[in-house]
């Protein structure tokens, strides 16, 4: 997406005009204009020159944002609130010249004293009013320049309404002043006083001053909406200490290159993404992930720019610099999201496109109708001006983008990145969440869960001998055993005559004794396994764990159970989603038994076992027939399913935040961030609805009131009060959006269920099953190997593999020869004994 800075926009009608003009440029596939950030995002093959020309022809200014715009954003002041100081200056001068007019009104209404010169010369008093009003108009000339420029380009905007209202009041009053002067010259004092009562100089000045008050408040509030993005930009370090030629040198951050060696002392910000070469420390990553607890880092661990080194000295090698750092990508993502448009904004856009011309037409009709009804020109003009100045297209235009910006910034502060405004709006509407098991519900790394020594054997002895045997194994389960031994401080011994029997087990000798380890079937060939121990193993397997048996000289030493442990926060996250009315489905490539055990622990509503990445995509396709689906996965292996889902959520992204397949990126591996993202989306959408309701309600009531429709009920509206109402409407909308800054996205106490999703529809597909008897499978990893080989065959839709039963049940959607199935499994290293 190419981004542009747009100048000259004042309301939603302006942004709609720019969007329409750019969308007509050949090669532009999509265009979204943000009134909030005065920016435009354009996708397609159109040249920047053609896009800029289209904007300029529409009566506005445009310039392309440079490639390094965000890297230097904090330095150059991009997103700095420069508008509020300008508006404050304008407002101060306006009020200085406006106050004398208000004093004169006090003289008219309540007899406040005037200087003798004016007390006896009313013509001079009105001439002073005219000059004072001219001063206010000059100070606020931007309304007139922008308003009449828009009118000339046949694209009237909010400034057009203000300019027309103030100009009409000033023009009519000037005519009355000349008539008053003529009457005074003729000595007709009574007629001169009649003309004096018909003047609206103070109304013209008040309209401009009060609209400026509203614009100042709006500018301040709009500046606050980008606070989250600005705080991210401020995190970017300005300098880095690099080592060149053996000497430490402090250089500008832009001068750091990939593979540079840099050092970070305690208390300093890490300047760029890198990997630790030397040292260890606790690093505070809260700026990127929202996690306040520091993370321990040691040699070989990655570090990210803008995180804080809290304790130790670190020597690192730069891996990502400039716009490639994690921080820069987050800033890019939040900024790009602000430049996109949510679907709900289209309603306001359609209204804004015709709003200003419709208001001008209503004001003209109001003026004519009151004249026809016999009212004076002054009275009819006051009603028409009231219609012009009370109408507020700004509130409509700001209702959606301010909430999107604040919601997106809040998410980013907590490590939740919404890529577009669409993803922020749609995430809260999901009815079904599909969770990948490995790395999402579970940690993704096998861990020892149980150590069960046999009678007469200590836990330390079992671990010592088991780790000695597993030390030379390359199996993933072996690493889990070694990790537990290291945690317990158990010395790992060296074995001789080591043998790994694929799919069966391990043997070796230590101090003249024969050690063996492996599955139940294998250990039965080495030692006697009591029935009670076999029952224990069965219980462990039912819980989704893999029992490893170990023996010494034919005597059973015990069982060590290994499993991909469930994350501590997974059950809580699942409960929170269910309390929101969301059905939670777990997808895994594991066998049915293990999958159901994990599913029970997590508390999910449905378990779909035995599916590979391609199979997950098919499951998502089926779930989408039942409701809006969000898929949660690691963003790499799950890319097809993430893309197929209505909302793809990549969890545990860490430094890899730019995952193409995902719509939402979660920096941490916390599953509770998924309900938090849904909560943030729902709160933002609720805020947008409130803003749109206020904007439509305000204009629906305000315009008829200003036109005089309710005068028979005793309700009327002075143009000055109309201007005050207009100035406050946008401020109210923006202020309401700022309330999202106080939203607690991890507080589940206010969650409420949405309408229930559609009932599950079961699709009937003509399939055929074949069962293979396989020898040599020992653990879930063996199952995964066989499963992957079989499901890679064309015509095989799924394979359910069990190492306990030594079978693979293959589901076919097209004929596959038995010989092909057999050869595929045997090529994977496992003999097939039967096929039916």
Automatic annotation (TrEMBL):
<dbReference type="InterPro" id="IPR027256">
    <property type="entry name" value="P-typ_ATPase_IB"/>
</dbReference>
<dbReference type="GO" id="GO:0043682">
    <property type="term" value="F:P-type divalent copper transporter activity"/>
</dbReference>
<dbReference type="InterPro" id="IPR023214">
    <property type="entry name" value="HAD_sf"/>
</dbReference>
<feature type="transmembrane region" description="Helical">
    <location>
        <begin position="122"/>
        <end position="140"/>
    </location>
</feature>
<keyword id="KW-0677">Repeat</keyword>
<feature type="transmembrane region" description="Helical">
    <location>
        <begin position="385"/>
        <end position="406"/>
    </location>
</feature>
<keyword id="KW-0186">Copper</keyword>
<keyword id="KW-0479">Metal-binding</keyword>
<feature type="transmembrane region" description="Helical">
    <location>
        <begin position="91"/>
        <end position="110"/>
    </location>
</feature>
<feature type="transmembrane region" description="Helical">
    <location>
        <begin position="692"/>
        <end position="715"/>
    </location>
</feature>
<keyword id="KW-0547">Nucleotide-binding</keyword>
<dbReference type="Pfam" id="PF00122">
    <property type="entry name" value="E1-E2_ATPase"/>
</dbReference>
<dbReference type="GO" id="GO:0055070">
    <property type="term" value="P:copper ion homeostasis"/>
</dbReference>
<dbReference type="InterPro" id="IPR044492">
    <property type="entry name" value="P_typ_ATPase_HD_dom"/>
</dbReference>
<keyword id="KW-0812">Transmembrane</keyword>
<feature type="transmembrane region" description="Helical">
    <location>
        <begin position="351"/>
        <end position="373"/>
    </location>
</feature>
<dbReference type="InterPro" id="IPR036163">
    <property type="entry name" value="HMA_dom_sf"/>
</dbReference>
<dbReference type="GO" id="GO:0016887">
    <property type="term" value="F:ATP hydrolysis activity"/>
</dbReference>
<feature type="domain" description="HMA">
    <location>
        <begin position="1"/>
        <end position="63"/>
    </location>
</feature>
<dbReference type="Pfam" id="PF00403">
    <property type="entry name" value="HMA"/>
</dbReference>
<keyword id="KW-0067">ATP-binding</keyword>
<dbReference type="InterPro" id="IPR008250">
    <property type="entry name" value="ATPase_P-typ_transduc_dom_A_sf"/>
</dbReference>
<dbReference type="Pfam" id="PF00702">
    <property type="entry name" value="Hydrolase"/>
</dbReference>
<dbReference type="InterPro" id="IPR017969">
    <property type="entry name" value="Heavy-metal-associated_CS"/>
</dbReference>
<keyword id="KW-1003">Cell membrane</keyword>
<keyword id="KW-1133">Transmembrane helix</keyword>
<feature type="transmembrane region" description="Helical">
    <location>
        <begin position="199"/>
        <end position="217"/>
    </location>
</feature>
<keyword id="KW-0813">Transport</keyword>
<dbReference type="InterPro" id="IPR001757">
    <property type="entry name" value="P_typ_ATPase"/>
</dbReference>
<dbReference type="InterPro" id="IPR018303">
    <property type="entry name" value="ATPase_P-typ_P_site"/>
</dbReference>
<dbReference type="InterPro" id="IPR006121">
    <property type="entry name" value="HMA_dom"/>
</dbReference>
<dbReference type="GO" id="GO:0005524">
    <property type="term" value="F:ATP binding"/>
</dbReference>
<keyword id="KW-1278">Translocase</keyword>
<feature type="transmembrane region" description="Helical">
    <location>
        <begin position="161"/>
        <end position="179"/>
    </location>
</feature>
<comment type="similarity">
    <text>Belongs to the cation transport ATPase (P-type) (TC 3.A.3) family. Type IB subfamily.</text>
</comment>
<keyword id="KW-0472">Membrane</keyword>
<dbReference type="GO" id="GO:0005886">
    <property type="term" value="C:plasma membrane"/>
</dbReference>
<dbReference type="InterPro" id="IPR059000">
    <property type="entry name" value="ATPase_P-type_domA"/>
</dbReference>
<dbReference type="InterPro" id="IPR023298">
    <property type="entry name" value="ATPase_P-typ_TM_dom_sf"/>
</dbReference>
<keyword id="KW-0187">Copper transport</keyword>
<feature type="domain" description="HMA">
    <location>
        <begin position="768"/>
        <end position="833"/>
    </location>
</feature>
<protein>
    <recommendedName>
        <fullName>Copper-exporting P-type ATPase</fullName>
        <ecNumber>7.2.2.8</ecNumber>
    </recommendedName>
</protein>
């Amino acid at each position: 997406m190419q981004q542009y800075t747009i100048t000259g926009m004042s309301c939603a009608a302006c942004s709609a005009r720019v969007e329409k003009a750019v969308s007509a440029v050949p090669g532009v596939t999509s265009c979204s204009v943000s009134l909030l950030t005065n920016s435009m995002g354009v996708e397609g093959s159109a040249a920047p020159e053609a896009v800029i020309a289209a904007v300029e022809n529409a009566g506005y200014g445009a310039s392309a944002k440079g490639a390094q715009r965000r890297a230097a954003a904090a330095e150059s002041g991009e997103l700095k609130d420069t508008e509020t100081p300008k508006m404050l200056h304008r407002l101060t001068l306006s009020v200085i010249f406006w106050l004398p007019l208000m004093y004169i009104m006090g003289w008219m209404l309540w007899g406040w004293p005037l200087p003798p010169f004016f007390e006896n010369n009313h013509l001079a008093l009105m001439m002073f009013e005219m000059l004072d009003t001219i001063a206010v108009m000059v100070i606020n000339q931007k309304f007139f320049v922008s308003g009449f420029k828009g009118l000339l380009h046949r694209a009237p905007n909010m400034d057009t309404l203000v300019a027309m209202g103030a100009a009409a009041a000033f023009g009519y009053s000037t005519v009355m002043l000349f008539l008053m002067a003529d009457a005074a010259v003729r000595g007709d004092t009574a007629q001169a006083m009649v003309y004096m009562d018909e003047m609206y100089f103070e109304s013209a000045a008040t309209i401009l001053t009060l609209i400026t008050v509203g614009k100042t408040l709006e500018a301040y509030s709009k500046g606050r909406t980008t606070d989250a993005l600005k705080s991210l930009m401020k995190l970017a370090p300005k300098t880095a200490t690099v080592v060149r030629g053996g000497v430490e040198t402090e250089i500008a951050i832009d001068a750091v290159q990939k593979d540079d060696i840099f050092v970070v002392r305690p208390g300093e910000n890490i300047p760029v993404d890198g990997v630790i070469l030397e040292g260890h420390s606790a690093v505070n990553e809260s700026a990127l992930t929202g996690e306040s607890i520091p993370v321990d880092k040691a040699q070989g661990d990655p570090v990210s720019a803008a995180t804080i080194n809290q304790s130790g000295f670190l020597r690192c090698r730069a891996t990502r610099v400039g716009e490639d750092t994690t921080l820069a990508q987050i800033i890019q993502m939040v900024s790009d999201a602000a430049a996109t448009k949510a679907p709900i904004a289209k309603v306001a856009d359609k209204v804004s496109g015709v709003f200003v011309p419709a208001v001008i037409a209503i004001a003209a009709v109001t003026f004519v109708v009151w004249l026809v009804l016999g009212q004076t020109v002054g009275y009819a003009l006051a009603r028409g001006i009231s219609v012009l100045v009370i109408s507020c297209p700004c509130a409509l235009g700001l209702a959606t983008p301010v909430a999107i910006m604040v919601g997106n910034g809040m998410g980013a502060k907590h490590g939740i990145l919404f890529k577009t405004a669409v993803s922020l709006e749609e995430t809260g509407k999901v009815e079904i969440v599909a969770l990948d098991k490995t790395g999402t519900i579970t940690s993704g790394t096998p861990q020892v869960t149980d150590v069960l020594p046999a009678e007469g054997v200590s836990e330390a002895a079992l671990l010592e001998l088991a780790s000695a045997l597993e030390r030379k194994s390359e199996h993933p389960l072996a690493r889990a055993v070694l990790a537990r031994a290291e945690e317990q401080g158990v010395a790992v011994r060296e074995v001789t005559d080591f043998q790994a029997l694929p799919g069966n087990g391990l043997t070796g000798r230590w101090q003249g004794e024969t050690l063996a380890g492996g599955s139940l079937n294998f250990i039965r060939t080495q030692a006697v396994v009591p029935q009670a121990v076999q029952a224990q193993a069965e219980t462990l397997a039912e819980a989704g764990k893999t029992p490893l048996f170990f023996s010494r000289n034919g005597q059973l030493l015990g069982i060590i159970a290994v499993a991909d442990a469930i994350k501590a926060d997974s059950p809580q996250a699942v409960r929170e989603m269910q309390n929101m009315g969301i059905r939670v489905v777990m997808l895994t490539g594991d066998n049915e038994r293990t999958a159901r055990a994990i599913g029970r622990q997590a508390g999910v509503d449905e378990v779909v076992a035995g599916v590979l990445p391609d199979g997950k995509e098919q499951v998502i396709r089926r779930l989408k027939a039942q409701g809006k689906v969000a898929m949660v996965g690691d963003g790499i292996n799950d890319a097809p399913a993430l893309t197929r889902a209505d909302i793809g959520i990549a969890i545990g992204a860490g430094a890899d935040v730019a995952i193409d397949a995902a719509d939402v990126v979660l920096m941490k591996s916390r599953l509770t961030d998924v309900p938090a993202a849904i909560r943030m989306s729902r709160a933002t959408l609720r805020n947008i609805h409130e803003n749109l309701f206020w904007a439509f309600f305000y204009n629906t009531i305000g315009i008829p009131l200003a036109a005089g429709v309710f005068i028979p009920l005793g309700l009327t509206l002075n143009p000055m009060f109309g201007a005050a109402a207009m100035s406050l409407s946008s401020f109210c909308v923006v202020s309401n959006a700022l309330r999202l800054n106080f939203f607690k996205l991890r507080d589940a106490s206010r969650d409420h269920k949405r309408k229930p999703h559609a009932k599950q529809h079961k699709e009937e597909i003509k399939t055929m099953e074949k069962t293979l008897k396989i020898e040599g499978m020992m653990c879930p990893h063996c199952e995964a190997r066989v499963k992957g080989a079989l499901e890679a065959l064309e015509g095989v839709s799924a394979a359910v593999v069990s190492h306990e039963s030594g079978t693979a049940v293959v589901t076919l959607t097209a004929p596959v020869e038995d010989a092909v199935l057999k050869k595929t499994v045997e090529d994977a290293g496992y003999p097939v004994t039967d096929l039916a």
